[in-house]
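--- STAGE predict ---
source: upstream dedup step, 1 unique chain passed
mode: sequence only
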Amino acid sequence: MLSDHTPSTTLATADPQRSRAFYEGVLGFEPSEESGGGVFYRAGNGSFFVYESSFAGTNQATSMSFELSPETFDQEIDALRGAGVAFDTFEMEGIAWEGGVASFDGMRGVWFKDPDGNILNVGTRP
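--- STAGE serialize ---
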C-alpha cells in the first residue's frame, strides 16, 4: 500500500544553478544525490527532488511544507528572515497576520517562494 511509504516532494526549476544556490545557500540543505537530471535533498525522514522543467513555478498552491514544533518555530522563522527570505501574505477568512506570520486554528505558519515561484510553507500544528 502506498500509505506504507514516505512520499518525496518534487519541485521544478527553470535554472538548476539558481535553485541550488537557494536550497543550499539560503535554506541550508545539502544535496544527497544527483540523479535523473536533478538533485535530491534529505529533509528529516524524507527527501525532495529539484529538477529542470519548462513548467517551473506554474503551480499557484503550496508545493512543499515543513512541520515544526511550536518550540522551534520562532527560531526557524528568525533564521529564514536572517537568510533574506521574504514571507508572503494572502487573504483568507480566519487568518490573523503579524510580521508575515499567520495564526489560525491554533496553528502558525509562513509561506514564501523559491526563485522559480514554487510556494513553500513552514508551520506548526496545535
